[in-house]
Amino acid sequence: MSQGNTGVTSQVVNAEACPVREVIDRVVGKWSVPIIIAAAHGPIRFTELERAIEGISRRMLTLTLRNLERDGLLKRTVHPTVPPKVEYELTPVARALHGTLLQLTGWAEQHRVTIAESRAAYDAERGLVEP
Fold it and tell me: Are 73 and 33 in contact (CB under 8 A)?
């Protein structure tokens, strides 16, 4: 065992990671990111989200919207019309998150080739790639 970093224990890692783990898991969920990106352009209706997010089921969209609303990331507005018009928009907290997501996607785009090359080299060194 390495003696270089003896201060790292599971208790230390869990104490530092636990408070944010649930939030991060929710925010980077499979459907949360596309919803946040779609709603960043202004209020958006359920059917518009459904059309914009490829592969999401109505049930998953409903559940994810409810969770994001519960977490204070989306505001749901019901307009008193017949039929009712429901719109979703980002809260100020989610707008800050959207900015962070844009930075992260920019970083990913900037470094995706380097990461792909690193993966290929790693796999080749270990014989994980078929010739």
Answer: no
